[in-house]
Amino acid sequence: MKTLPALTLAALTALTGPALAQGAHCGPRDVVIGQLDTSYGEKLVGGGLQDPDALLELWISPESGSWTILMSRPDGTSCIVAAGTDWTGTGAGAVLAGVRS
């Protein structure tokens, strides 16, 4: 089931955009991903471009099962557009190696 994270991101792509991001919790990328790591133990497991101005990423904690969909913009702002618990399936153990988060 390697496609589960990709399908999740594809489905959310239709739901995300500038209007949603404006209402989301946003901040400087380094601060947001620092919180995902230190507070929740989440690691980057995949992502892709929605368009030239929006990078969508899936962050998962293999230990707790928490997950976050993050949208980052070229100006360095990242917004949490979805988050939850009890992640199951491919991705929880597939932290991307060699990718600078």
- Our measurement of the CA-to-CA distance between the termini, rounded to an integer number of angstroms, reads 24 Å
Identify the quaternary structure here. single chain
Averaged pLDDT, please? 77
Q: Estimate the helix proportion, in percent.
A: 25-40%
What is the H/E string?
HHEHEEEE
The major pleated sheet works out as: 5 strands, antiparallel
Helix segment tally? 3
Q: Based on CA inertia axes, which overall geometry fits?
A: globular
Using DSSP, what is the number of strands?
5
Proportion in β-strands: 25-35%
User: Order of strands across the biggest sheet?
Assistant: 1-5-4-3-2
* Rg for CA atoms: 12 Å
Helix/sheet category: alpha+beta
Q: Stretches where pLDDT falls below 50 for ≥5 residues?
A: 1-22
Description:
The chain has a domain at 4-12 and 25-84. The protein has helices at residues 4-13, 18-23, 29-40; strands at residues 25-28, 43-51, 54-60, 67-72, 77-84. By secondary structure, the chain is of the alpha+beta class. It has 3 helices and 5 strands. Strands 1-5-4-3-2 form a 5-stranded antiparallel beta sheet, sandwiched between helices. Residues 1-21 form the signal peptide.
Architecture blueprint of SSEs:
Layout lengths: L3 H10 L4 H6 L1 E4 H12 L2 E9 L2 E7 L6 E6 L4 E8 L17
Antiparallel strand pairs: 1-5, 2-3, 3-4, 4-5
Short structural description:
This protein is α+β, with helices and mostly antiparallel strands and 101 residues long. It has helices at residues 4-13, 18-23, 29-40, and strands at 25-28, 43-51, 54-60, 67-72, 77-84.
